[in-house]
Fold this protein.
Amino acid sequence: MKKKMKLVRFEDHHAEMMKDPAFRKALDEPDEDVFLETAYRLVMLRRKAGLTQAQLAKKMKTSQQVVARLESLNYKGHSLASLQKVAQALQKKIKIQFV
């Protein structure tokens, strides 16, 4: 008999995790995987703006598939140009640091 998997919305999981001080601290520190960190930050910025991938894509004058690819945890092709498009669409600036 197959076990039923309980699906959890990202927002609910994230809210629960934010209660953990160690998790909150880890979010503020750079991740070892810059691509994973970039994807996570893009998702969080888009969601904070209250936009779907399709809505962000429209603001960027691109497709939803492009936004999905940029937010993919496996994608390693982020260019400064594509990140700048996201930043402009979300009325943000890009800040690059070497730490």
Q: What stands out?
A: The chain has six helices and no strands. The helical segments are 10-17, 21-28, 34-48, 53-60, 64-71, 80-89. The chain has one domain: 10-89. Residues 34-48 form the longest helix (15 residues).
